[in-house]
Every structure is written in C-alpha cells, then in structure tokens.
Amino acid sequence: MSAVTTTSAAVATGLATEERTSRLGKGVRLTGFYLVILIIALIFILPYLMSIFAAFKTLPQILAQSPLRPPTSPTWSNFSTLFSQYDFGRYLANTLLVTVILTAGQVTFSMMGAYAFARMEFPGRDSLFWLYLMTLMVPNIVTLVPLYVLFAHSHLLNTYWAIFLPYVLGVPYQVFLMRQYFMTIPKEVMEAARLDGCSEGRILWKIIVPISRPILITATLLAFIFGWNNFMWPLIVTNSNSLNVLTVGIANFDSNFGVEWNLVLAGALVALIPMVILFAIFQKHIVNSISLTGINR
Amino acid sequence: MSGPRPGRPRGRTRRRAGFAARVMLAGAALTLLSGCAGWGVSGGSSGGVVNLTYALWDPHEQVGYQQSIDEFEKLHPNIHVTIENVPYGNYEQKMIAEFITGGAPDLFWVNTPWLATFIKDGMLTNLTPLIKANHIDMSQYYPQLVALHSVGSKIYGLPKDWDTIALYYNKAYFAKLHLTVPAILNWNTNGTGSFVTFLKAATTDTSGHNALSPRFNPNKIATYAIGIDNDPQGGWGDYVAEAGGKVLPYPGAPYTSLATPQVNAGITFLTKYLTGDHVMVPGDLSGPNANGNNLEQMFAQGQVAMWEQGDWNTLTVKTGVTFPVGVATLPIGPDGRVSVFNGLIDGLNAHTPYPKQAWELEQWLGSPQSEAILGSGGYVWPAIKSLDPLFLQYWQKQGIDMQAFLTEAQGKVVNFPNSPGVGDALTDVDNDLGPAFLGSEPVSQALKTAQTDADYVLKTS
C-alpha cells in the first residue's frame, strides 16, 4: 500500500514538475513571441515617430539631436512657415479636390463596369473581362510616357483634369474587386427586380448599391488613399505651383542648395494627418478590405 | 403580372427629374470650376498680356526671384510671369520632357552639368545677336562666367550668380582649442605642409588629445578637423586643380584627362594623407560612397570642425547650427589656391512663342537692378562684380563673414567642367572614385576606371 502511495506521489510530483516545465516553456515561448512582435512593431512605428518628433523641432535640433529624442520645446514655426510662405493651404485644397473627384469617379464607374461583368449577359463578356484584367499586370510606369503624350496632345497638361482623368473612369483592380463581390449576390434578386420592370440602372442603384456597402466603402477608401498619396503622375503633368498637390509640394523642397528637413517633415505630417483620421474612423473597413481582397495596396 | 401600377409613372418621372437635377447641378458645378484657374489650358496670352513661365528649383531663392519679378512686371505691364518651382531631382528630366511635348517654360535655370547637352539639343537660344543689338556690357560680369556659358562666340545666358568653395568652420570649437584659423595654409603632394599640421592640431580624440600628440587615439576621435566630399566641385575637384590637374583637357572636350599624375596627386592627398593622418572624416563615415551626405549633420553635431562646401550652403549652415560660424579660404596647393567656379544662367527657350518678352525677362534678371535685389537679400552672389559687396554685407549682418568666397572668386579659379554629357560622366566618376575614398582600391586604378567610364559617356553624348 505504502509502495503504491509512494509511487503515486512520485508520479504526481513528476507530473507537477512536467506541468511547471511546460508552463515555463510556454511562458518563455510567449515572451519570445511578444518580443519579436514588439521589435517588428518598433521597426514600423519608429520612422513615423521620428518624423513626428522632427516636425516639431527646429533645423539645428534635427541636425544635432538623436532622431529618437522627443522635442523638448515643441515648435509650431515649421507649420506656420509652410502655410504662410509656401502656400501649403492651396496644396492641401488641391489634393482634397482631385482626390474627391478621383474617388467619386473611380468608385462609380468601376461599380458600373463590375456590375456589367458580373450580372449582365452579353457576348464575349468573360473574355472582355479577362482582357481588361490583364491590364492590371502592366506596371503603371509602362503607361506613363504614352499617357503623358496623350495629355500633351489633348492640351490638358498642367490642369486639374490631367491629375485625375487617368484614374477617374475606373481601374481594373476596383472592377475586379467589386465584380467578385457582386457575383456573391444571388441572381434571383436581380431576376425578381427585372420581372418587376426594373431597369438595369435601377437594379444597380436601388438594389446592388445598398447591399454592397462593405465593398463600396472598401473601394472608396482604397481610391482615396491612392489619390491622396499619388506623386509621380501629378509631378509629371503639372508645372504651375498653383496646381501642386501635397506630395509634389513636399518634393519641391528638394534643392541642391540644401534641404530644410524641418519643413519637409512638417509637410509630411500635414499630408499624413488626414490619412490617420481616415484610418481611425474606418479602420474596421480597412481591415475588412484586406480580408476581402487579400491585398493591401 | 407586372402591369403599370397606379402612380408609378409619376413617381418615376419625379425621380428621373431628381436625378436629372442632380446631373445638371454637377454639370453646373463642373462648368463653374472649369472657369477657375487650373481647369482651362494655361499659358499663352490673353487681353494683350503675355504669360511667361520661369522655371527654377529652389524654394528659398524663389522668394527672392519673386521680388525681382514683381519689379519687372511693374516695368512691363504687358508681361506676366509665373514661377514654377520643380524639385531638383527631377528638374533635368522634366525640362527635357517638356521640350519634347512643347510645353517647356519660356525661361529656365540651367545648371552647368546639363548646359552643353541642352545647347547641343537645340533647347537654348544663342543670345549673342540680342546682346549686341541691345548693347549689353558683358564686361560687367566675371569673365570666367561668360566663358563658362559660351561655345565659341555664342553666349547662351547672361550670368546672374556665381559660387566658389571654401571652409565653413565652427568658431566655438576653435576658440575652445585656442586655435586661430590662419589666412594662409599650404599643402604638398607628399602629405606635408602647414595645412596638414593645422588639421592635426584641430583633430581631437575623446580624451582631448590632438593628432599631434603621441597620446592621440585614432580609434576614439571626437572631432575630425575637416570633412570633404567625393565630389568634383565641393570636394576633390579643388585639390585636383591645385595640383595642376584637369577633369577635361579643354571645355567641350569629348574625353577626360583624369588618369594623369596631377589628378592622382590631388586625390591621393585626400585619400592617402588626410585620411591616413585621421584628420579628415573617412569615406565610410562621410556618406554612401563617401559622397558627404552625413557631413552637414556631423558639422552641426560638432563631430567635424571644418566643412568644405560651396557658398550655396550658407543658409543651411546659418539655420542648421547653434554655434558661430566662420569661413576660411581653401589651402594653397602646388599650383596655388584654386577654387572650382560655377554659376547659373537663365536659358531662353529656343522654341518659345514669345522670344521678345522672354528676352526682356532674361535681360532684367541679368541686370544690375535685379542682381542687386538678389544680392542684397542674401540669396546669391551677383554675377556683376561691382554688386558683390551687397551680398557680403547681408551675411555680415547675419553674423557670417563670407569674404573667403569672394577672395577666391577674385583669385585663381577653374570653371566647372563643361561638355555634352558631363553631368552623367561626373556621376560615373564619383561612383568609380568611391572605392579610393573608402580605401579599397588604389587611386590610380580608380582613376583609370573613371576615365574609361566617363570617356564613353562623353563620346556617346
């Protein structure tokens, strides 16, 4: 009996030790995991943090201090210089204007195209869709020169039109995104509407749009972020500083006579703030967009 | 089953009307916007007023140029000028693209590395007939600047500013060491001379010992005496000239003269002697390929006492550091004290629809009135010799004595290399000289490679 008791006690002790070791191992693994996550998070966050710190520092402070050191006496002078001396208010307004037009047009026309490709019957529909989708594989830089020449011959260079027209009539990515979503809507819904005498336009606006809000919000956000951050095309097609968007306005500080980093980084923060606000408001939809598309543009 | 329902047509009509109203409203809004600037085609002339565009790349100087152009517009009420500030990194490519598509500015800044290519490609107007017809006194300008922007008897721009290279130094640091920066310092190609001795005295380790002391620890340097770029203008170009070397055998040459003993001596002085003596910031600390990108920050942080650079950095130095700054002349080499000399012109678009008006603007920007505005505002050294004191006085009031730059301009100078394709060729040269500055390749080998690469670019440009 006592031998059995001793054996049981030994087994229990062994199990407890094993459990402790296992708990300890799990704890070490978890600590290691969080440490790795923390390091990765820091790698992503630090550049933003350094830019934000620098936006509130003077040029001597930026040059002389560690970029990781927060500003001891934050200054707003960089921002006042941007808006008083360099017309950043206009750049902000230009960016907002072209981004809103680009977003509204891109989402509307992409939606119409996607609906046609998803739920309208016409000869060669699928072939046309895949042909259109193939253009998604062509890098933007390839079409840059032909587009520029096209706009030059149309006498549209150096106008607001030039900044948003290439993107306003829909893009393959958005069409693809919405088509895939529309395909999940049961055909019967549209057939019932047609039987009720609904035109295709009304089906789209009155039935498809209300039940496709998640994908439309996602598409809107993606278009807005693209429009807001677009740099190369506005740089190429505009000459006048009165037409500059924020990204180009910031790049204008690039001079071979010395760069005022305090203004560059304050300008970058001005451009970043609306995007951060947008993210804070619509973060659920942005995360949703990643799960819907598998892509974060 | 689906016969028309009572009231349905009416409802549809109302909705259609609503939709139509929205479309009309949107159309009206767009039409209204189309009337605003930026929606129509820009440029050209309207109501007898000619709209000229003037391109440059510096947001700070833009302020000064706007002041000058405001005065110009008062004198020429029928000409309106819009300044376009283009990022420097994209400037050359953007100008070329705009010439190809016919939308180039009427007048635009031209930097010397692109000058000969722009002339060769027919982008710039030969101003010589206009200069003669308008009796412009070219002797008012520095003659080297006129030569820099000429091909034979053809002049492609009225000089409007100039720059030389000198040594910005940290006055507080030298005061702490009880050292005065001498007005005259010499160097020899064997690594000796008062310049080297002075730099050794000005280099200190973390224990406070200078490089002349036997207790100096070269592995723990707190402050290097000098920072010099791997650059043909603000860096090695001056030492090569002072050793009697030339990047190009003559202006417009389709090949370089890099693999010569003189060029080798100038670069070896930096890479072997100053670097070997631990008085110059080593190539790997100076920046990628020893390009000097880190030197501005190192100077501001007190890690380098003297920063060799062109006068265009004065605003950055003034606003970027917290200590008082002095400027010293370059040391004197075997061939004397020689600075690389450069300047900008306004290129007059050879295809502008308004050549008369663009010429008026060119004349104004090269006139004593305009150069006085830019000089007295501290933006640039005026190309008109008699106006130099204006710039000097401006910076004296700001606490920086710029006399060293002027002394060099009035002394022996060598023009920035000028030949078709020289901008790209010099980029190759810098890339090829990087290993020599980093100590991984002998100077002679680096120069051979540089000459081969640069010659290919020049011959094919």
What does this structure look like?
The complex is a heterodimer of chains A (297) and B (461). Chain A starts with a helix and ends with a helix. Chain A contains 14 helices and no strands. The mean pLDDT of chain A is 88. By secondary structure, chain A is mostly helical. In chain A, helix 3 crosses helix 14 and helix 4 crosses helix 8. Chain B folds into two domains: 172 residues, Periplasmic binding protein-like II (D-Maltodextrin-Binding Protein, domain 2); 217 residues, D-Maltodextrin-Binding Protein, domain 2 (3-Layer(aba) Sandwich). Chain B is built from 19 helices and 16 strands. In chain B, strands 1, 2, 3, 4 and 14 form a five-stranded mixed beta sheet that branches. Chain B has a five-stranded mixed beta sheet with strand order 9-10-11-8-12. The N terminus of chain B is likely disordered. Chains A and B meet through helix 2 and helix 6 of A and helix 2, strand 3, helix 3, helix 12 and helix 13 of B.
